Structures are given as C-alpha cells and as structure tokens.
C-alpha cells in the first residue's frame, strides 16, 4: 500500500514538472532518472526540493519580484573573470593592489561579507529559516539581527550591488518575513533577484563530475531567460560555481575558501566590539580542528572533492577553470593559484 502511494505521488510530481518547468521538463526527467538508478534518496530530494523552489519563485514573481534571469546577467557582466569572496582568514592576506584588480572584475560576496570593507558587484543573500518547532529560535533571531545591522551600516555603499536571494527562506516563501529580507525589500527592491534551486544532497553518492555532465547535456548549465533551477551541490560554494559556469565566466577565483579549520577573516576584537554576535560565532567555530565541509565521515564527497570535480568538468567541457587566490587554502595545490 505504501509503495502504491509513493508511486501515485511520483506521478503527481511528474505532472508538476510539466507545469512548472515547461522548457526544461524533458531534461529534468532525464537527470532525475540518471540519479534515481544511482542514488534514489538524492534523486527524490532533488525532485521535491526543486519543485518547491520553483513554486516559491513563481509565486514571488506574481507578487512583483524578479527572478534570476541568467541570460540577462550573462550578457551584462563586465568581465569573464569572477572572484567569489568567502570568509576564510586568507582574505586578510589580500593586498590593496590585489583588491584594486578584483574591483575591475565581477565579484560575489556571501555569508558575513557585509563585515568587510570591500563592496562586491553582487551579494548572495539568505535568511535564517525558522520552523515553528525551532528550538534555536533565539539564536536564529540573533543571526538575522546581525546580518541586518551589518547591512544597515553599509546601506549607502550597497546601492548598486545586486542581491541574489537563495536558500530555505526563499524556497519556503519566508525570506521577506525575516529582518534582513524586509530591510533589503524596503531599501534595494529593484536589486533583488530570487534564485530557483536544484538542491543536491551533501550525502549525494553520484560523482560530481558525472552529475555536472548530465546536467550540462540536459540544458541546466546554459544561460536562459526562463526560470532555471541552479544546481546546488551541498554547500553555497557548490552552487555558486555552477551558477558562474551558467553565466559564462571562464576564470572562477575562490578567495577565502580555505576550509583548514573554523577560523574566519572577521575574527578580530574590533569586529566583536561592533557586532558582539560575531564573537559568539567565532567561539563556536574556532573550537573545530577540522572545517565542517571537510568532514569525510558525514559525506562521500567533501566540499574540496566537489570543487576539484567541478574544476575538472569546467576545464574539460566548458573552457573554464577554477582557481584559488591564496596558497594557504586547503584547495591548493589541487586547485591552481590564480596569477594576474
């Protein structure tokens, strides 16, 4: 009886695919079947969460918000070089001369990048998603307030920055209920672009290189005017690299993607005094001997494994390459150092 119910639900999902992904339906079905025979849990999660994300994005578009039009952004980028700005301590090794060079190209910040003085061309924003039974609600509220306070302090400097909104808050249509979502809506509404996602579990068992190949063959790594779910391999960086490839970047430079331990560029007393919540976060993270994304006991492919396989795919299939900006990153020497 349970198997019959599951089969009926599966058929209903396929109907939804036809309605929600008219331009990518056949391709998504092929991707789904490819993954299903190799890792059915990842396939079902991908199906459910992608449909949820598409429904949320299309609902928000009806409310007057913009979705991430990959064709438009690809056509209007000022360079084929992208710098992705993470939170690792190697950010503090970047010189003024290097920052000047980064400024001439495209750059994306995420997580607590608001704490840094460099203003990127785009910021990948997500809100803390709260469930009704969330036991960590107070902690989530503090994070929400922290993000809002940081952006408030730099409000005037972010007026020309694009905000790519993603994550559970967006996919559950709760992003604009958060303080950071409300602040961005009230101050940067025309700069908000909602990102539909195709989430791939961090416990995925399919080789990321093969996964990227089948996504590419079925149109999911090609810019389009239509709503296109962006493949997300476990973590934020596992989503930003596919997005960068979709947008046609040929040099993708990872700055501060260190993953050596729990340290961050903002682990400084001057930042703690201004934003006390940062001290709490540093105390939680800095006790880790190993970065959470490098823990092979919880996943078959660590984030480093994924980046290496995505780089192999990009080099062999899309004429692009991924670099690390500093050799202190755990990605080096598997990922080459960027030279400019």
Q: Calculate the mean pLDDT score and round it.
A: 92
| Total number of domains | 1
Count all strands and give the number.
10
CATH class: Alpha Beta
Q: Strand-and-helix sequence, N→C?
A: HHHEHEHEEHEHHEEHEHEHHHE
CATH fold-level name: sialyltransferase cstii, chain A
Q: Percent helix among the residues? A: 40-55%
Proper CATH architecture: Alpha-Beta Complex
- Based on secondary structure, the structural category is alpha/beta
Q: Please describe the biggest sheet, giving its number of strands, its sense, and whether it closes into a barrel.
A: 8 strands, parallel
Distance between the termini: 62 Å
- If strands are numbered along the chain, what order do they take across the biggest sheet? 1-6-5-4-3-2-9-10
Strand content: 5-15%
Shape: globular
How is this structure best described in words?
The protein has 340 residues and is of the alpha/beta class. The chain has one domain (2-324): sialyltransferase cstii, chain A. It has 13 helices and ten strands. It has helices at residues 2-20, 25-36, 40-62, 70-76, 96-103, 137-153, 168-171, 179-188, 208-217, 237-246, 269-274, 276-285, 303-317; strands at 66-67, 81-85, 106-110, 122-125, 162-165, 192-194, 197-200, 230-233, 251-255, 321-324. The strands form two sheets. Strands 1-6-5-4-3-2-9-10 form an eight-stranded parallel beta sheet, with helices on both faces. It has a two-stranded parallel ribbon with strand order 7-8. The longest helix is centred in the first third of the chain and has 23 residues, at 40-62. It is globular, with a radius of gyration of 20 Å.
